[in-house]
Amino acid sequence: MTGMVFIKVKGDCYEMGCGDWTGQCDSDELPVHKVCVDDFWMGQYEVTQNEWQIIMGQNPSLSAYGSHYPVEKVSWNDVQIFINKLNKVSNHQFRLPTEAEWEYACRSGGKPQKYSGKGLDINHLGWFKGNSMLITHGVGNKAPNFLDLYDMSGNVSEWCMDAYDKKAYSKHSKKKPLIKHGATKVVRGGDWSDEYSCLRCSSRRGYASDLKSKDLGFRLIRER
Question: What pLDDT, on a 0 to 100 scale, did the predictor assign at position 118?
Fold first, then answer.
């Protein structure tokens, strides 16, 4: 009913974390470790203000420039309410991506990519502090990655399912890793207010689950 577009991502095993291809690493992106994910369907774009409005009946976004702009000012908790409502009126079931799924998709199926896109010119790939004019932009206006996913580097940062743990990479299971418990949740992708280094596919942050910010949104996984 929302017209969301999803891309099928074929699962596999890959080296998760900040590897030699990245060139710079934060401590919470290490160690590099092998994980495996199943096939999944990921939203081609960040969830838009129009899609949120259809389900929730209101638009919380500070930057309400247009219906095709990503929704923001939504907490992780808000997103769970949105998903529950969407699941009740849809023939499919939806959820946030796990951190492992998100990075796998950002890197076009686990390829050794620093950013999410074709090439290394970050101005071509994503919106960040240096090119955004410090505002959000409509989804899909930068180049996609090799899976045809847009804005995974930049525009708005994206909530993931996982609780944030600085030492998660020493605790992950190999098969479908997920850190379940904790009030601080993983955020990925970087955004329009960030330095370009934050747009790396391996970059990760943790925010309180009730945080609402003008540079923070999400995209969905369709389960079936």
Answer: 80
